[in-house]
Amino acid sequence: MSILDSKIPKGPLADKWTKHKNDINLVNPANKRNIDVIMVGTGLAGGSAAATLAELGYNVKTFCYQDSPRRAHSIAAQGGINAAKNYQGDGDSTYRLFYDTIKGGDYRSREANVYRLAEVSANIIDQCVAQGVPFAREYGGMLDNRSFGGVLVSRTFYAKGQTGQQLLLGAYAAMNRQINRGKITPYNRHEMLDLVIVDGKARGIIARDLVTGKIERHSAHAVVIASGGYGNVFFLSTNAMGSNVTASWKIHKRGAYFANPCYTQIHPTCIPVSGDHQSKLTLMSESLRNDGRIWVPKKKEDAEAIRNGKKKPTDLSAEERDYYLERRYPSFGNLVPRDVASRAAKERCDAGYGVNKTGEAVYLDFASAIERYGKEQAAIHGNHNPSDAEIKKLGTQVIESKYGNLFQMYEKIVDENPYETPMMIYPAVHYTMGGVWVDYNLQSTIPGCYVTGEANFSDHGANRLGASALMQGLADGYFVLPYTIGDYLSKDIKTGKISTETKEFDEAESRVRELLNKLVNNNGTHSVDYFHKKLGKIMWDKCGMARNAEDLKSAMSEIRALREEFWKDVKVPGGMDEMNSELEKATRVADFLELGELFAKDALHRNESCGGHFREEYQTEEGEALRDDENFMYVAAWEYTGDPGNEVLHKEELDYENIEVKSRSYK
Amino acid sequence: MKLTLKIWRQKNANTKGELKTYPIDGIEGDMSFLEMLDVLNEGLINKGEEPVVFDHDCREGICGSCSLQINGEPHGPDRLITTCQLHMRMFKDGDTIVIEPFRATAFPVIKDLVVDRSSFDRIQQAGGFISVNTSGNTIDANAIPVNKHDADESFNAATCIGCGACVAACKNASAMLFTSAKVSQFALLPQGKTEATERVLNMVAQMDKEGFGNCSNTGACEIECPKGISLENIARMNREYLGASIKG
Ligand SMILES: Cc1cc2nc3c(=O)[nH]c(=O)nc-3n(C[C@H](O)[C@H](O)[C@H](O)COP(=O)(O)OP(=O)(O)OC[C@H]3O[C@@H](n4cnc5c(N)ncnc54)[C@H](O)[C@@H]3O)c2cc1C
Ligand code: SF4
Ligand code: FES
């Protein structure tokens, strides 16, 4: 078992990043022109990094599978982005954001990284405003904030329910400026299918043009992977249909360690599954928990009557409702972190209090907020004796201005008006804290191969707090990677162009061709989706919100068997020299079928509960997660050995020098 | 529900396409339109036929990938939603549904229902940005107060998802609504003023170069736009353009 070197700089926590920036090597502007960087992914993490590196003078090639960088799944982020600006004067600071994030992650993340994240967070907001990102503002013209789960301050900046869209369009605009200057060459509708390593260093990729099917070689002095998360291993998730693990998994197979694959975030507020045809799940932003109250009926008979359509939620009085989060966690109430809220919903539904046909839904109710805002608005407008109808109208307007697009989305999907009747919600797979292991410089265990954004194992430990993924993606891309990659590239100023006519490129290309050939010529009997759905079911049932050793063992063997069946029996119509959406899906699902097994293995080896990883064997009497700091305060980084069920574990021990490790309490 | 689908099939950009008829059964109202197509495709694959290819990704109305002309309307019969948010409860048993790609010279068909909208990207590359470096040396965000009304209007314009429905809805295949949304977003903010002149001139020039048609104020774009981007943006862009032409 090797010890991983996280390359955390020496010195006091608050000085590490500044000192590191001063110590690392720079590349002079004239030399940057001779250096090429490949960026796989143009979401917040990749788009921001591509723009910044191009602006610094490097030649950047970007890759994304959509037809435009503007469509990366970062676009779907709704609720907001954190930053320790303390504009509200409510006691926020870099330290507090750092502390909240470490605690939120259940003491399974790296102190130095998280501190750096908190430190650069304020810069992100300045940067985005300068780019013209239209954040929400107060009447005085200053930026507005809201709260997210797991914290006691208001530090979340937002643009209605479309924060990710606005931030991504900001990064996309910054990219466009560099494309216009000729410093970025975009390769849209391209999928990376392998990494090329020359003399131990990442020097290029093999990509497939998704329009023509052409297999292409691209070389560079460094390769950055910013390809997003792997939640789609569960088939159903809040991720986009095309979100995948392929880029990360390919570099894993070439030598990059994969860290904490089992740390998955199951988000408490998503629209429940409606039937077998379901292709994806839709998030209802956590920001709704600022104003929505979560409840189920107190009595089982009422829950049953609601399920049978004999009662409506609005028929139940306040006394007949169980606001279980407010009851169990009085100090954080509806704003407990996601893992806690999700488990609490599952607990109530498993106990028979679920409120939809399938019994897997709880209510998120805005009636109290509408009333509160309505009264407030009436008073502001000088109406001190408003009628109920006036209160409702004014309150509804406030809610609409805050969450209008989310309410519309809900109504279109569920066909119910959430201003009139509470929303129904249930937890769904949303985010993956695990990912490719990287050191403080965001470099993987392959020299010259960097990983940013959700694709890396990131700064969120075992559970991510809301509004912190956007923060991390942009911190990595605008402010961290551009420095750290320069240190590496400073040794490459004399290298010259990397040739693609080498045996390393030949080998990588033939591996890709072999894979694609095999898939299109397989002549099996079942579609790719058939296998993906089966995998998703195993993952959800056995590696989902609550896990146990027995289930995880059987998940490993079931996934292995399914993988074998896939390779024998999958059917991919069409050829490889044309646009072929089934072939695209097939390459992605093939990788999910390998990742799934490692996921279960990782969950099985971690004999504790922490954050989003809940092992039934390890819980307190009240059903809270029970960590084992003595034995598991480490990052599990897995090394590929040719078989996902037999990967080798490497441990990065986590040292907490600045924060006292405690058991997490939101009571 | 039992339906008859008439779907545009085209092998690639260089071959001619045609409408093909596919009967389909067992469709439920809770399914989204794209889930209905998933069901069709699963059936086609099982029969050994090639599935219908269409663009889609987020399936929640925000990425702007999905782009179907349904019974002659971009994104189908419902209002203020994208194709992926359209649900089958909008149709009834026995309906015939014609599904085509978005049509415009500047959006050539790639395959079946997939079109090439890279012309939109090029319009943005011509000027849809504020030239600020991403180095982190910017001033404090609250040093530039922005009137709430302007900020909200700017945001509304910025919610364009770049889907192209406005172009597909327009008899001239004009990209005015799309282009004006970006011009407006920046025109309404103090940060955007410095480059306002070049921005509008360059973006409009690129729009013309891509082969989009002229705007004749029919307003079809606004009606079909899934994000409710307002015609006021076109008026604002025209003012900006006029001002810039006089200056420039
Ligand atoms: C519905 C939803 C709401 C969310 N809301 C919030 C929120 O309010 N606040 C918050 O902080 N976080 C939120 N998150 C999380 C956050 O949005 C994501 O973690 C973050 O945006 C990921 O950014 P990224 O740049 O790492 O990846 P992505 O934005 O997913 O980008 C991935 C990129 O990689 C490309 N790519 C992938 N695979 C390949 C390949 N093989 N070859 C070539 N290119 C490839 C894609 O084309 C894309 O460009 C939300 C997530 C979801 C799903
Ligand atoms: S203006 Fe509306 S219809 Fe046109 S691209 Fe934008 S969102 Fe689509
Ligand atoms: S698939 Fe993203 S908007 Fe329809």
Automatic annotation (TrEMBL), chain A:
Residues 545-596 form a coiled coil. Residues 532-666 form the Fumarate reductase/succinate dehydrogenase flavoprotein-like C-terminal domain. Its cofactor is FAD. Residues 36-470 form the FAD-dependent oxidoreductase 2 FAD-binding domain. Keywords: Coiled coil, Flavoprotein, Oxidoreductase. This is Fumarate reductase/succinate dehydrogenase flavoprotein subunit. The lineage of its organism: Bacteria, Pseudomonadati, Bacteroidota, Flavobacteriia, Flavobacteriales.
UniProtKB/TrEMBL annotation, chain B:
Residues 151-181 form the 4Fe-4S ferredoxin-type domain. InterPro entries: 2Fe-2S_ferredoxin-like_sf, 2Fe-2S_ferredoxin-type, 2Fe2S_fd_BS, 4Fe4S_Fe-S-bd, Beta-grasp_dom_sf, Helical_ferredxn, SDH/FRD_Iron-Sulfur, Succ_DH/fum_Rdtase_N. It holds the Pfam family Fer4_8. SUPFAM superfamilies: 2Fe-2S ferredoxin-like, alpha-helical ferredoxin. Residues 1-103 form the 2Fe-2S ferredoxin-type domain. Its cofactor is [3Fe-4S] cluster; [2Fe-2S] cluster. Transmembrane segments: none annotated. Signal peptide: none annotated. NCBIfam families: PRK07570.1. Belongs to the succinate dehydrogenase/fumarate reductase iron-sulfur protein family. This is Succinate dehydrogenase/fumarate reductase iron-sulfur subunit.
